[in-house]
Amino acid sequence: MVMFKVSRVETTPFDGQKPGTSGLRKKVKVFVQPHYLENFVQSTFNALGADKVTGATLVVSGDGRYYSKDAIQIIIKMAAANGVRRIWVGQNGLLSTPAVSAVIRERVGADGSKATGAFILTASHNPGGPTEDFGIKYNMENGGPAPEGITDKIYSNTTTIKEYLIAEGLPDVDISTTGVTSFAGPEGQFDVDVFDSASDYVKLMKSIFDFQAIQKLISSPKFSFCYDALHGVGGAYAKPIFVDELGAQENSLLNCVPKEDFGGGHPDPNLTYAKELVARMGLGKTSTEEPPEFGAAADGDADRNMVLGKRFFVTPSDSVAIIAANAVQSIPYFSGGLKGVARSMPTSAALDVVAKNLNLKFFEVPTGWKFFGNLMDAGMCSVCGEESFGTDHIREKDGIWAVLAWLSILAYKNKDNLGGEKLVSVEDIVRQHWSTYGRHYYTRYDYENVDAASAKELMAYLVKLESSLSEVNDIIKGIRSDVSKVVHADEFEYKDPVDGSISKHQGIRYLFEDGSRLVFRLSGTGSEGATIRLYIEQYEQDPSKIGRESQDALAPLVEVALKLSKMQEFTGRSTPTVIT
Questions:
Q1: Which amino acids are annotated catalytic?
Q2: Side-chain-facing half-sphere of 384: CA atoms under 13 Å
Q3: What share of the chain is helix, strand, coil (3-state, %, to 5)?
Q4: Are 517 and 509 in contact (CB under 8 A)?
Q5: How far apart are CA 274 and CA 254, in angstroms?
Q6: Sign of CA dihedral 279, 280, 282, 287
Q7: φ and ψ at 469, to 5 degrees?
Q8: Within a 10 A sphere around the Cβ of 285, how many other Cβ atoms?
């Protein structure tokens, strides 16, 4: 057995190692600086404390983006030096963010060990490669992201760090082959267990959904299916689930080989970046072949998703509302009923209407999955959503879960119809939902890499403006007379009903008399500059108006939002980077 000793390496702090809602994200060139990653990892161990580190079992894996393999070896050596007992690594360093959460919650090692935390190496839907983005975040024993109390401690430690511990004489571990490698150190044995990336997650999905019902749907000659992993880690799960378990054809999988640079693409599942899937589903400018009935895409770490029907886009906000409305009948896991539902503040209010109609507990929380985790741990919430969504089976959002949820709803709606002339389609399900609950026309404008100072000025202007609703309504009437009046404006603040913590400055809301909304938020998911996200939502209950084109229905509110905020004046941008 190879022996290692513990080395103490002197270091000095780096500026800006403050983790956002989803960890620390920077350009690769920043992370590869000597001591940069090591400082952050040691600061995390120090924040957790010896009782959560010494003798612990931790998971280290991610979406496979560039620099992941190097980072995994560094973290293994640092874990060994800090007294961790064993490290679990997904084969080839690959585990989706939801799969990491599932592994923490569900996996039991051959020696009976259970994981109590994880380093997840991902920058989510941001591009990968030598000149692109890398990221790291820590998840806790419940499988969810570290709470603010821990991330604040990590950041504080990064500002004062003087040394880190690393194992000397511990060779790189082969993470391409499954199996356990053991080493001996000052504290005793240290193991690295490389395991199959998909098996635990597949087992969990089979315990939630009726795979036989989905198989019947997929085997119907009238049903066709397409899944695009955008060369992210979702590809590691696509074949085991969709092909091996559910019987889909292998040619229904697009871009399902994980790549360090995501094939040169931007692994964000939206109509702008998932070009190949959008074209195949008949939503491109030219379309000759008959599109499949159902299509879906995942982002880099497979926690986000996009759902499409034949020539039809499902907004994420509609998607979570439709899943909540159909979950009890369609998904065995929910057959006993839903405990409650929750959405992030910027997500449309489609879920609110479902909750009211079905008499469910409802919560509106800030952006960031950790807020849902608290509600789930307290047994207050079953289905939740931001622009991506999930349930209380784990403590992360889960893109593949969402695809299986939609396939389950389609299977349920078509269970007596598989031999019929025409299947109930994605579009049919969405339109039926609108006729029952009304339609929330919804769009998001992203202004990426905006000068940070300009972005802050814009937000400060909006905060100041909201103090006088009469002034706001005068400005709006001067822009469009056909827009409802604003009845409430605020900077969203949240008091957690579970732990009492208060989150301030979570975005600026303008709420209209007819149920429409404008939301402005600075996002912490980019690695450079600032991203301004503008959410525009028009609520329509009139059955004669729910079939309009989104662009037409939203045009008056879009004009109001851009002029009211002086978007071009502050940012210098005449158009957003991405519209979803």
A1: 124
A2: 36
A3: 35, 25, 40
A4: yes
A5: 10
A6: positive
A7: -65, -35
A8: 6
Residue 241 tokens read as 């689930």
Beta bridge partners of 384: 342, 390
pLDDT tens string 137-166: 999 999 999 988 899 999 999 999 999 999
List pLDDT tens digits, range 508-558: 999 999 999 999 998 765 556 889 999 999 999 999 999 999 999 999 999
What angle, rounded to 10 degrees, do the helices at 316-330 and 426-437 form?
Answer: 90
- Paired sense of beta strands 2-3 and 86-90, if any: unpaired
Label residue 447 exposed, middle or buried (CB < 10 Å: 0-12, 13-18, 19+).
buried
Beta strands in 122-198 (DSSP E): 133-139, 163-168, 179-185, 188-195
Contact 24, 136 (CB under 8 A): yes
Q: State the DSSP H helix or E strand holding residue 365, giving kind and residue range, or none if neither.
A: strand 362-365
Per the confidence metrics, is the pTM higher than 0.70? yes
CA 412/CA 395 separation, integer angstroms: 26
Alpha carbons 278 and 274: distance in angstroms, whole number: 6
CB-based contacts of 184, cutoff 8 Å, min separation 6: 1, 2, 3, 4, 190
Structure tokens at 459: 């937000």
Backbone φ and ψ for 77, nearest 5 degrees, come out as -65, -40
Q: How many CB atoms lie within 10 A of CB 184?
A: 13
Q: Which residue has the tokens 């100072």?
A: 453
| Structure tokens, 216 | 């019947």
Centre a 10 Å sphere on the Cβ of residue 524 and count the other Cβ atoms it contains.
16
Strand order in the sheet with 253-254: 253-254, 225-228, 294-298, 305-309, 312-314
